[in-house]
Amino acid sequence: MISDIPRVRFAPSPTGYLHVGGLRTALYNYLFAKNIKGKFILRIEDTDRNRYVQGAVENLISTLNWAGIDYDEGPEKGGEYGPYLQSERIDIYSQYADLLIKKKKAYYCFCSSERLTKLREEQQKQNKQSMYDKHCLGLTGEEINRNLSTGLPHVIRLNVEPGKVIKFNDHIREDVEFSSNVVDDQVLIKTDKYPTYHLANVVDDHLMKITHVIRGEEWLSSTPKHVILYEALEWEIPIFAHLPLLLNADRSKLSKRQGDVAVEDYKKKGYLKEALINFVALLGWTAGDDKEYYEIDELISSFSLDRVNKSGAIFDIEKLNWLNEEHLRKKSDIELLKMLRSELQDSKFSGQEYNDEYLINVIEVMRETVSFIKEIFEKGFYFFEEPTTYEEAGVKKRWNNQSAEILKQYKTKIELITSPTREDYENALKDTALQNNTGNGNVIHPLRLAVSGVTGGPGIFDILYIIGKEKTINRIKAIIEKLN
Ligand code: GLU
Q: Would residue 256 show up in a list of annotated catalytic residues for this protein?
């Protein structure tokens, strides 16, 4: 047994941002671990020095933190099996590469890049899969030692035995088989002495006692190499679970060209982490019923690898938007207040001061009408600034030669009340209509235009009450001046 308690890991290569596919992998590992009280490990696979991006690890960790995906062991936190950054484990990998050489499961390769390019070109010409031709496997011990002592650049390659069937069980795909004839003699240690993904990944999964390898389908074709390595090192093979691909609506592989792929972009657009997590959880998994709205605790209690699909999962942005609305509706006014305050700083109204009571009043009347909290500043702009124009169609339909006089009368009534309540605004309106022998609508619509500039929105008395007496009066004066 690898470990008594299930241990899983998310093992991203830091590319500078967290891809939504990466978020899904991290989430499934997290949910799996939480569901069965296992451990979730974060390991950074940063051995490709050409791809090194400054700040990428910090960025990745802060994105995971934002999403609420907390790990038990990993960088910044430590743990029994660290370090958790592969670049800090280089000596460990070379030890195992040496062991593989001793066992004749790996060998030194001194081929120049010119030779390898030529080989590849010839294979391409013959329509053959590009594979190393095991040239250096034939070197004698003497030749190898001579090359090594003269410092000839070299790599270490996996010695794949041809003619074998490599079998492994995948929790999602069941039995998977590959012929070893299509498995290349993979480079394990590069000329810069750094390991490749394959060696480092297997060594670390073993040393970190990983019981389940849950990762994207794009790694399925690497798994035979890993199985060969596990067998060569006589290590127990973990359970694999390859998650379905993420697809665009047209079933092509999810790509930047058709929309955002970085978690950060969704965060910037104002999506709630609860919505994004809920959405991503459903990309390839279902509890087996029609339920779509999930809080994180429900995801943890219902998640199981048994219900992960094989077929690709379509990234449906409409569904994400819907979930965002649903999660927004569930938030308390106080939570929304916190969010609105932070959005206020990034809005064109930053610098303006509003007390909590004012903003909560706005939230209460606007919350059901928006999908994103920042939409409050767009749809309910009139709570933050005076309208400078009036909706043209609204004016045409709702403003007549009586409107100015009616609003003047309404204004006079309001002026006489010290601190008007919602009822005061309403009673004044009814009185005005009665006095003019007209319907309430002939007061409401011009009044709405005056205070908001638009024809739709929350209840008119709510608007009036929130903006208050002074602004109500000023805005009535302004519309009369502008439209008459
Ligand atoms: N470093 C690989 C990645 O970037 C990890 C794949 C795996 O989980 O084995 O996704």
A: yes
